Amino acid sequence: MSAAFVREQTLAPRPAPFAATGVKAWVGQRLFATPRDIAMTMIGFAAFVLLAMPLIRFLFLDAVWQGENRDACAHVLTGACWPFVAAKFNQFIYGFYPADQLWRPNIVFALGAILLVPLAVPSAPWKRLNAFLFLVVYPVASFVLLTGGNLDAEHFILGYFIRIEDHVDLVWHGMRAAFWLDYAFSSLVLSLAVALIGWLFGTPLSTSLKVMVGLFALLALVIAPADADFGLSWVETREWGGLLVTLVVAVTGIVAALPIGILLALGRRSEMPLVRWASVAFIEFWRGVPLITVLFFATYMLPLFLPGGANIERLVRALIGVALFSGAYMAEVVRGGLAAVPKGQYESAAALGLGYWQTMLLIVLPQALTNVIPGIVNNFIGLFKDTTLVQIVAILDLLGQIRSAFSDPNWASPTTLYTGFAFAGAIYFAFCFAMSRYSLFLERRAGASQLRMEANRT
Predict the structure, then answer these.
(1) Each residue's pLDDT tens digit, 256-300
(2) Nearest Cα to 316, choosing from 145, 163, 190, 143?
(3) With left for phi above 0 and alpha for psi between -120 and 50, is residue 24 left, alpha or beta?
(4) Which of 80, 105, 344, 424 has the fewest C-beta atoms under 10 angstroms from its C-beta?
C-alpha cells in the first residue's frame, strides 16, 4: 500500500528556463513570459507598425536633407523639409538676437550646462559652492551677458522709488549721488523693512539682523554688477526669442517656484493668523487665475499702475508673473509633503531642543520634499511646456519663432508646417523626458537611502 503523499506518476518535463542575463533574458521575461505577455507584445508591435512607421518615414526615410529654398521640398508630399530647419536654426534658437553677438548667449548656455551637470550629480564635490554659483552668480552673469549690463538707474524700478537724493543733499565732486549709491540705499531700506517685519512677528532680533545683512549683501551682489559698464552693447529683450526665451522663462520659473512655494506652504501652516491668511489669499488668488490672464495683466495693465518714468521690461514683467503663478501651485505640492511627515518627527525635534527653523530645515523639509518629488517635477514639466503662452503677449519663444517662420514665402512647401512642429516637439520632449528620468533617479536614490536608514535602526 502506497502512502498518500507519494506521487505515483512522473511529472512531465518543464521547458528550459530563459537565460538569466542578456538580451535574450530580457525579451523572454518581459515580452514572452506568459500567453498574455505574448498577446500584448503582438498588439504593441502592430501599433508600432501602424503609428510609428509612418512617422519614421516622414522624419527620416522620405525626408529632404539638402536644399537652398522651397524648390528642394516643393515636390515632396510625405517627407520632412529639414533644409527649412537648417536655414532658420539661428532664428529658432536665438530669435532676432544680433548675429555678431551670438557668442554671448552661447556662453550663457555653456555656463548653465557646466554648473548644472555637477549640481545634478550626487557624488560631485563642492556642492554648496556649486549651488551658490548656479543660483546666485549665474543669473547675474547671464543677465549681464544677455543684456549688456549698464542699467539706466532712472528706469530701474527700485532706484526710482527710493533715491537717496530725495532724502539727503549729497554732493560728491560736484555731482549728484552715484547711481550705485541709490541702489545701496534702496537695498538697505528694503532689508531693514524685512527685518522689522520679522521682528514684529516674533522672530528673534539676532535672526532678523542676520536676515537683514544677508538680504542687503544679496541685493548688492545682484545690483552692482547689473549697473556696471562691461563694454557690451545693449540688447533689448524684444530682440530675444526662440529657445533662448523658452529657457529663460522656464529656468526663472523653476528656480523661483520652489523657494516661493516652500515659504507659502509654511505660511499657510503658520500659527500666526495674519501670515496664514495672507498665504492662503495669495495661493488661492494665483491658483484661481489662468496663466494667460497673468501674462496679459503683467504685460499690458501693470504699466498703467506705475508712476510716470518708471519702467519694467516686458520680458521681466512676464518672468515675475510666471514665478508667482508657479510658486502658488508649488506651495500646494509642498503642503502635501508637509502633511505626510509624521507628527513624531516634530516631537522628536522638540525633544532635542531644536527651534522652528532648525526643525523645518534639518528634519521636516527634507522628508517632505522627498515625498513629493513626482509632484514637484510634474509642476516643472508643466511650467516648461506652458512657456509657449508668452507668444500671446508678443514674446516669441521657440514655438512662436517657428510659427513666425512659416510666413517666409521662400520656404512655403507642403511639409514645412509639419517639419517645424516636429522640430519643436522633439526639443520639448528632450527636455521634459530628461527631467522625468532625473526625477525617477532621485526617487530611487531616496528610496534606497530610506531602506538603509531603516536597516540601521533595526
Answers:
(1) 999 999 999 999 988 888 888 989 999 999 998 999 888 888 888
(2) 143
(3) alpha
(4) 344
Grid cell, residue 256, equals: 523661483
pLDDT digits (tens, 9 = 90+) for 194-226: 666 666 655 566 666 666 666 666 666 666 665
What is the Cα–Cα distance from 306 to 314, expressed in whole angstroms? 13
HEC string of the chain equals: CCCCCCCCCCCCCCCCCCCCCHHHHHHHHHCCCCHHHHHHHHHHHHHHHHHHHHHHHHHHHCCECCCCCHHHCCCCCCCCEHHHHHHCHHHHHHCCCCHHHCHHHHHHHHHHHHHHHHHHCCCCCCHHHHHHHHHHHHHHHHHHHHHCECCCHHHCHHHHHCCHHHCCCCCECCECCCHHHHHHHHHHHHHHHHHHHHHHCCCCHHHHHHHHHHHHHHHHHHHHHHHCECCCCCCCHHHCCHHHHHHHHHHHHHHHHHHHHHHHHHHHCCCCHHHHHHHHHHHHHHHCCCHHHHHHHHHHHHHHHCCCCCCCCHHHHHHHHHHHHHHHHHHHHHHHHHHHCCHHHHHHHHHCCCCHHHHHHHHHHHHHHHHCHHHHHHHHHHHHHHHHHHHHHCCCEHHHHHHHHCCCHHHCCCCHHHHHHHHHHHHHHHHHHHHHHHHHHHHHHHHHHHHHHHHHHC
- Cell match 540705499: residue? 185
Question: Scanning the structure block, which residue is given the C-alpha cell 514637484?
Answer: 376
Q: Which three cell numbers stand for residue 201?
A: 512677528
**Rounded Cα–Cα distance for residues 31 and 48 (Å):** 15
On whether the CB atoms of residues 263 and 257 are closer than 8 A, the answer is no
Find out whether 96 and 239 touch, Cβ atoms under 8 Å.
Answer: yes
pLDDT tens for residues 136-178?
788 888 888 898 876 654 444 444 444 444 444 444 433 344 4
State how far the Cα of 112 lies from the Cα of 139, in Å rounded to an integer.
9
CA dist 136 and 126 (Å) reads 15
Report the C-alpha gap between 191 and 205 in whole angstroms.
Answer: 14
Angstrom distance (rounded) from CA 330 to CA 341: 17
Instruction: Kindly report which listed range (57-66, 299-308, 405-414, 447-456) carries the lowest average pLDDT score.
Output: 447-456
Bridge partners of residue 397, in order along the sequence: 242
